[in-house]
Specification:
The chain is an all-alpha fold. It contains 22 helices and no strands. It has one domain. Helices cover 78% and strands 0% of the residues.
Amino acid sequence: MSAAVRWLLPLAVVLELVAMCASNKPLSAAAGLLFLCCFLMAGSRLQAYSRALLLVSLVVTGWLSIRGQLSMSQLIKASADAAFYAAFLGSLGMMQCLVRRFEVLRRIHDVLLGGRAVWLYPKYALVSCGIASVLSFGMMNLLCGSLSETLRDRGITGPSRLQWLRCVLISALRGFALVPLVAPTSVAVAILTRELPELSWSMLLPFGAAAAVLLIGVGWLLEQRRFRQVSSERVTLDQWPAGTLKLLLLVLAVFSVMAVLVALTSLKVSAAAMLAVPVITLLYITWEDRSLGTVLEESASQVSAMVNEMAIFAGSAILGVALSSMIPRDALSGLAGSTGGVLMLATIGMLMLPLLSAIGIIPITVLSIQAGLLPELVAGGMDPLLISVALVIGFSLAMMLSPFGPSVMLLSRFGQVSRWVVAFRWNGVFVLIAVPLLLALLAIEAVLLPAFR
């Protein structure tokens, strides 16, 4: 990574955070242009998928602009959205700077494998979700990387190694996939609440939590037998690793700052997380290292290490604005006026995400396009809650089935297992069982929704 890109990426993140606090869309669009310049300067250093998605988004946007199908306001929105989603990932990824400073995170698998074997799957899923709500993709790096080291240090190979990978990493992936359903820091929640200001995370939470409980129950039934074998090979800890309490206090500080920002300002929870995570992280590592230069160096390195994921998020945002502009404004308005029509839209929207993700279109791209259609439907009188719930459920399923998604690719790389095996063989049966149950849950929520309004 060139020195220019290494320092310009953090600058673009800071510029977007300033624009977000000031509600200044032109400044946010400028941040988006700076991000695009960084991605173009990175060039061949980007992975093939990141480059392809970014190129497609720019070509499609340029072609539509030349044909007059995209107005200047839409181009500004596309650039501003690209900045927001790239900065969302960059700012939350700063929490990864804390990982190497805490022994409890390096020994997390020994911690999680404690206790009765029957509870290991829900424990892994819930803890993975909790960590991912703060670390985002850093959670996959943490759990996958630490498991690889654990297996190598203990000499676990062959069928036992595959069993560990199958149990532990698939539970981590499914826990990560719960984040859109329950966490305010999810990019899916950020996209939907950005497009629909009248929507909030607290409105989505009861319905998302019900779906999360259902998904944990299905996974529990499928995986508990495998966890018994893994449990027999674990190392028992005599006490909690050093730094556990300090880490819990830091996480509590992050969520406390988020709560204060939401209470005292007009910021949404997602935006508050984008400010709280880097601020608390920078304060802590500055206090620990006592060197501003070292802190700046580490922060720049951490943000620039996520350039591929940030390029994917930015390209998806641009493509979402461009493609949603091609769909006629009244194409779906006829379905938005009745409960049955809204349920049909919600069902289609939910199923589109995992189906398109399975053929290689990553979930954030699909959700960006879908979210771009919602404001027009809401303007026509549609209640956005049910379809928004359906989209976060679909996003959760898509995270498990997308062979090109960042989470599956990380798991594949660390576990040295084909991403097709992870997405389809390990998760296929789980999703086939879960989808009918989630559709039934969605229908029940459609009936109960008036009671929540």
